[in-house]
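A quick aside before the break. I want you to see a complete sequence-to-structure record at least once, exactly as it would be stored in a machine-readable document. Don't worry about memorizing anything.
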Amino acid sequence: MAKYSKSAGKDVERTVKRFESGKLKSGKRGKGGTVKSRKQAIAIGLSEARAKGKKVPQRKTAKRKTAKRKR
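That is the input. The structure line, written in tokens, reads:
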């Protein structure tokens, strides 16, 4: 079973092409400046595909450390 749909892969390809041409911006509404790394461009493409409802695995999040209780 495939992890990603073909259309999600196409979305990522389009985003990487925008990165290569220097038109990909980071942050909400592109206010964070141009994207510097290919890895970041791929992550943006995946999150855009997720927002469209394409078949993409959930975003990996850091595990929270449990706070020690004082007794």
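Two observations worth writing down. Residues 6-20 form the longest helix (15 residues). The CA atoms of residues 8 and 63 lie 26 Å apart. We'll return to this after the break.
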